[in-house]
């Protein structure tokens, strides 16, 4: 998952946790929290599909590479036998099986890539929608806690940049 998407989803999770920890009876607040929870659940499902696609693509790519390494010597032996007018039927059958397996690995690799690319696009959309929903909640929280800096500070901490990200950036030496 891309870092920008992960940070947006973390912000949404922080906002959801804050909202559940500071319940508000107003209908708009509850509805926004419900929408946010659904968006985060959708993003979690897309993230799982994305990871599955990555894993399947890596596996298919490894099989493809192994088959290509097997295919090269088979092809050379076949060409040598054809050059001597003595094509080996067993060699041709093995070559055919290897080519069929290579085709299957190529198809699997492409399907896995399609899975993770589609899931990544869905994650981007979900992250954008999470940011919009957090903006709605931000307005509600800032009005509700305008005179109470404690909860307002909690909100900012829950929805702001993560301390670990700031610490990591500060620790990097200047170029």
Please, could you describe this protein's structure?
- By secondary structure, this protein is mainly α.
- The chain has one domain (3-160).
- The protein has five helices and no strands.
- It has helices spanning 3-21, 27-83, 89-144, 149-159, 163-171.
- Helix 1 (3-21) packs antiparallel against helix 2, helix 1 packs across helix 3 and helix 1 (3-21) runs antiparallel to helix 4 (149-159).
- The chain is rod-shaped.
- The two termini are 28 Å apart.
- 19% of the residues are buried.
Describe the structure using short key phrases.
single chain; 175 residues; mainly alpha; 0% strand; rod-shaped
In short:
This protein has 175 residues and is an all-alpha fold. 87% of the residues lie in helices and 0% in strands.
Question: What's the topology here?
Answer:
Elements: H1 3-21, H2 27-83, H3 89-144, H4 149-159, H5 163-171
Overall pLDDT score: 83
Low-confidence stretches: 163-168
User: What class would the helix/strand composition place it in?
Assistant: mainly alpha
Number of strands: 0
Counted up, domains total 1
The amount of helix comes to: over 70%
Question: Could you give a short account of the major beta sheet?
Answer: none
Shape: rod-shaped
Number of helices: 5
Terminal Cα span:
28 Å
Rg over alpha carbons: 27 Å
Q: From N to C, what is the helix and strand string?
A: HHHHH
Q: Strand share of the residues? A: under 5%
């Amino acid at each position: 998952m891309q870092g920008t998407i992960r940070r947006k989803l973390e912000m949404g999770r922080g906002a959801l946790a804050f909202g559940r920890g500071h319940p508000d009876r107003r209908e708009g607040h509850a509805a926004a929290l419900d929408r946010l929870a659904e968006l985060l659940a959708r993003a979690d499902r897309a993230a799982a599909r994305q990871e599955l696609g990555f894993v399947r693509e890596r596996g298919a790519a490894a099989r493809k590479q192994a088959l290509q390494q097997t295919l090269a010597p088979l092809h050379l032996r076949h060409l040598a036998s054809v050059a001597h007018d003595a094509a080996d039927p067993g060699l041709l059958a093995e070559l055919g099986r290897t080519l069929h397996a290579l085709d299957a690995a190529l198809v699997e690799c492409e399907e896995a890539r399609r899975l993770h690319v589609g899931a990544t696009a869905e994650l981007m959309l979900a992250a954008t929608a999470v940011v919009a929903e957090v903006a709605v909640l931000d307005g509600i929280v800032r009005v509700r806690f305008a005179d109470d800096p404690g909860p307002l500070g909690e909100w900012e901490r829950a929805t702001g940049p993560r301390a670990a990200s700031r610490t990591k950036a500060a620790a990097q030496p200047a170029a």
